[in-house]
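Q: I'm building a small set of examples for a reading group on sequence design. Run inverse folding on the following structure and report the sequence directly after it, with nothing in between.
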């Protein structure tokens, strides 16, 4: 991303209402979380045996859903709706 593109995005975000800003932040954080999950799954596939990797994934899902109360949501289900909500 060029400096000019960064400034354009920054100016757009500054124009958001409070609600629109937090919807956008949720969208950005969801994408970052999904990318992090992809990274640890790829790393586990390289380093761990399939059974160990499955156990780690299951435990991570349990921690996220039961301990933190964050349900599983895929980007395919939410990306279009989230983008339209925040006006992107």
């Amino acid at each position: 991303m060029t400096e000019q593109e960064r400034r354009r995005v920054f100016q757009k975000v500054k124009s958001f209402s409070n609600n629109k800003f937090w919807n956008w932040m949720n969208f950005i954080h969801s994408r970052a979380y999904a990318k992090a999950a992809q990274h640890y799954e790829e790393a586990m596939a390289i380093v761990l045996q399939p059974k160990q990797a499955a156990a780690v994934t299951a435990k991570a899902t349990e921690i996220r859903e039961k301990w933190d109360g964050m349900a599983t949501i895929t980007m395919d289900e939410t990306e279009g709706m989230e983008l339209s909500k925040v006006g992107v």
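Helices lie at 3-14, 18-47, 50-67, 75-86.
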